[in-house]
Amino acid sequence: MKVLNLGCGSQRYPNVTGIDIIKSAGADIVHDLDKTPWPIASSSVDATLAFHILEHVADLPHVMEEIHRISKPEARLIVEVPYFRSVLAYQDPTHRRFFTTRTFDYFSQKTKFGSYKYANADFEVSDFWLGWPTRSRNPVKQMAKNFFRKHQDAYDTCLSRLFGVDIVVFELVVKK
């Protein structure tokens, strides 16, 4: 199984290929993600990790197309980004964009946004977590997660002001 860690920095995981613009202890490949094509073969990656990197790239639709190109059909993409209402989203001056629970719907053929699909790539959002990057056994958090999943628009526009989170984590499936 080939796993890729985008913008790995010093993060090092066993049997995971790290790619970063800066040569570091975690980077196996030194490359700017905004420059395509990436030095990775098409349809060769089983899973991609993107932890706190997509908010930094210059052209998110283009990066999503490149992730799609290098991924095998049904490959997984795990994304962790600051939630748009969080201080974390704004405190880093290198952040170029912010994310809601619906951001990745724009990268799906099944999007409710119709012609507003911005990339020539198809991903399905299979799951997401608000603020809790691991599956919680706490029944209150589980009920909140289920409620917010069913009412994403209400959470983004109103409820997130009352029940704020710092991050949103997505699991996407590559569709080819």
List the keywords.
176 residues; alpha/beta; seven-stranded mixed β-sheet; 7 strands; 22% helix; globular
Give the DSSP E fraction (strand runs of 2 or more residues). 25-35%
Radius of gyration: 16 Å
Taking the sheet with the most strands, its summary is: 7 strands, mixed
- Summing up helix and strand content along with how strands pair, one would put the structural category as alpha/beta
* Total strands: 7
Give a brief rundown of this model.
By secondary structure, the chain is an alpha/beta fold.
Could you walk me through the main structural features you see in this protein, from its secondary elements to its overall organization?
There is one protein chain. Helix content is 22%, strand content 26%. By secondary structure, the protein is of the alpha/beta class.
Task: Please describe the topology of this protein.
Layout: E1 3-6, E2 16-20, E3 29-30, E4 45-51, H1 60-70, E5 71-82, H2 87-91, E6 123-130, H3 139-150, H4 152-162, E7 167-174
Parallel strand pairs: 1-2, 1-4, 2-3, 4-5
Antiparallel strand pairs: 5-7, 6-7
